[in-house]
Amino acid sequence: MVRNPDSRGAISLQDIWRALDDVVDPEIPVVSLVEMGIIRDVMEVGGRIVVKMTPTFAGCPALEVMESDIRARLEKMGIDLVDVVRALDPPWTSDWISESARRKIKQIGLAPPQVHGGDFINVLDAPVTCPYCDSFNTTLKNSFGSTPCRMIYYCNNCSQPFEQFRPL
Predict the structure, then answer these.
(1) Which terminus, N or C, of the chain has the lesser number of Cβ atoms within 10 Å?
(2) What is the CA angle 108-67-107, rounded to 5?
(3) Which residues pair with 24 in a beta bridge?
(4) Is 56 within 8 Å of 149 (Cβ atoms)?
């Protein structure tokens, strides 16, 4: 338990997890870092809160923004002693994206990645479903999208271009 100086009670780790679910992914603001599986653990160590995060890419351009947003959200709760630790082992996988995040991603026109369990060869060859019309009649147009974690597709059925979150 962490003592909140502005209240009589303590803040539980469960309270902190709920608060961190408010911290949105800077590149996909309809989902939280918790839903994306980026926040891996929260613990109290020597009176400090340690938040372990695994970015989607080691060189993710949004790393500092995410760390700052995590600290700001916990400071809003009255928690000032916060360490955000980057954990790169094991590397982040798109399998960590929650089902609720997959639905939200699809609703904004971004095709969610398939769950692959580490079988990248089969998932990269699998057809990608259009987030607009659910057709499998899609074509990869570019392996590089607007961010390192996206690819650009075209739906031959509804004529919509769209991005897919890269299965990693």
Answers:
(1) N
(2) 10
(3) 32
(4) yes
Would you list the domain boundaries of the chain?
A: 2-86, 109-165
**How many whole angstroms separate alpha carbon 83 and alpha carbon 74?**
11
pLDDT of residue 3: 53
8 A C-beta contact, residue 41 and residue 52: yes
Contacts of 156 (CB under 8 A, 6+ apart): 135, 137, 138, 139
Please state the separation of Cα 117 from the chain's center in Å: 17
Max Cα distance, the chain (Å):
60
CA distances (Å), origin 8, targets 5, 47, 142: 7, 17, 55
CATH architecture of 2-86: 2-Layer Sandwich (3.30)
Task: Please give the average per-residue pLDDT across 15-23, as a whole number.
Answer: 97
Residues 6+ apart with CB under 8 A from 160: 109, 130, 132, 133, 154
